Amino acid sequence: MYATERRELIEQVLRDEARVAVADLAERLDVTTETVRRDLALLERAGVLRRVHGGAVAADRGSAAEADLRERAGQRGPAKHAIARRAVEALGDDFRGSVLLDAGTTTGAVAELLSDRLAGPDAQVVTHSAVLAALLTTRGGVPLTTIGGRVRGITGAAVGAGTVQAIESMRPDIAFVGTNGLSAAFGASTPDPDEADVKRAIVRSARRVVLLADASKFGDESLQRFARLDEIDLLVTDRAPSGALAAALEDADVEVWIA
C-alpha cells in the first residue's frame, strides 16, 4: 500500500470512528507502529488530526469541544442502540424501582426501551433532559418525574445549582449515564462544567451507576472529570476495552458488558 493510500485510509477511519489508535492502525495496515506515527505526524501538520496518547483524534476534538444533539444523533447509531439493548438488561424483568436517566443520545436509546422493562406504577423514571422527558411523555405507562433548571440548547440538559440540589436529594436505584470521554488516568469526563456538576451529582446519588460509552470514547479526556473509575459499577460498551483502560477498569472493580 502506498503512503498516500495509507493516509487516506487513516482519515476514513477517523471520520467513521472519531479516534484512531496506533496499534490498531498498524495491524489494519500491516505496517510498523513507527510508520503509523510518521503518518499521524504528517496528518497533524496538515491540520487533519490532533495526536493524543496512543493515537489521534479529529482536529476539532479538543477537550472543550462538544457536538450538538443533531450531530451526535447521526453518529454511531447502531452501536448506541446495541449498547442500550444490553444496558436495559441491568434492570432485570418487571423492574419496580427508580431509574435516573442522564441526558444524551445513548441514554435516549435506553429511554426508548424502558416501557417494556418497567412494572407499572411502582417504577419511576427521573430525568433532567428536556429531550428525554418529551420522548418518555409520548410513551404511555412510564411514570416520569422531570428535574428543571437552565436548559443547555446544545444537549437539551437542565443544569445549574437547582438541578444539582434536586438530584442530590434523591437516591435512585440505578442511573444510566453518558460520557464524552473515558480514560484510565482521568476517568469519565465531559466538556461543560455545568453538565459535569449534574453528572457528578447523579453518580454520587445513585445506588448503581451504569456508564454507557461506545468505543470511540476510549482514551478521550474532556475538560471536566465527573467520575473516577471506582465510582462506576458497570460499563456497557460495544467493544472490549484494551491496554491501560482495561487494566484500570479491572483494578477499579468495574464490571464490563459488551453489546
What does this protein structure show overall?
With 259 residues, this protein is an alpha/beta fold. It has two domains: 3-58, Winged helix-like DNA-binding domain superfamily/Winged helix DNA-binding domain (Arc Repressor Mutant, subunit A), CATH 1.10.10; 69-258, Rossmann fold (3-Layer(aba) Sandwich). It is built from ten helices and 15 strands. It has helices at residues 3-17, 22-29, 33-45, 69-73, 77-87, 105-111, 130-137, 161-168, 193-205, 243-251; strands at residues 19-21, 49-52, 55-58, 98-101, 124-127, 144-146, 150-152, 157-159, 174-178, 181-183, 187-190, 209-212, 224-227, 234-237, 255-258. It has a seven-stranded parallel beta sheet with strand order 6-5-4-9-12-14-15, sandwiched between helices. The two termini are 33 Å apart. The mean pLDDT is 89.
Write the layout of secondary structure elements.
Blueprint: H1 3-17, E1 19-21, H2 22-29, H3 33-45, E2 49-52, E3 55-58, H4 69-73, H5 77-87, E4 98-101, H6 105-111, E5 124-127, H7 130-137, E6 144-146, E7 150-152, E8 157-159, H8 161-168, E9 174-178, E10 181-183, E11 187-190, H9 193-205, E12 209-212, E13 224-227, E14 234-237, H10 243-251, E15 255-258
Parallel strand pairs: 4-5, 4-9, 5-6, 9-12, 12-14, 14-15
Antiparallel strand pairs: 1-3, 2-3, 7-8, 10-11, 11-13
